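Posting this for the archive.
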Amino acid sequence: MATAPDRRPPAGPAPRPAAPGSALWWQARYAERDRRRPRAGGLALARIAAGALELADRDGLDSLTMRSLGEYLQVRHTSLYRHVASREELLIETVDHMLAEIRLPSLDGDWRAGLEQGAREFRRVLTAHPALVPALTSGQLLGPNALRAREHALGQLLAQGWAPRTAVHVYLTVTHFVIGSAVLDTGGAARTGPQRAAMTELFASLSPQTHPVVRRHADLLNSLDGTEEFAFGLRVLLMGLGHLHTEEAAG
């Protein structure tokens, strides 16, 4: 007797795994953590991330590999793969571990004081770990410690009268300002002593016909450091947000 043909549609390609650091990746990560039971005496993810942060602080981000971390922790590097599947995932977890150092501002003050204290505290942590700053943009900040800070800041803004949509804009604007400042301070745009001198010399050598303003203010353009620029930018940003809050309350 002839067998009926299989009319099922052909199987499609297997779904691609979520990119490390994406919302889908974090969602699967949280579900996996809820299911997994820690092994007695086993290596915990928190210890792995702490060791990675220590190693990056000491030797730089390029030195951080699964093998070098295994040697630092005095374990077989293959044992790390039970917790992180790749160096990329390791960096995502290490960034979130770093964010645990942020001391959340008190909820007793007004929203402006809370935003300022939170921004300065965020910058303090990033300044303490400059090697890891480039990894901030390797994924979305959706780990448990990032969400802790997000919950705190948004809760304070909403409790003090900000409309939900505007509160989200305010939170993201301030957060991105801090990250952008830290990236510039630790990346190729950072101005060290020799770089300042070279830039001043370059500006001073420009033609007064084509760049009279830059040439005239060559020293001033390089006199500000990252901390001073950050303080000025944050003050102006908060002033603008204050006007926005007043307009929202009146309208």
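The chain is about 60% helix and 0% strand. The mean pLDDT is 89.
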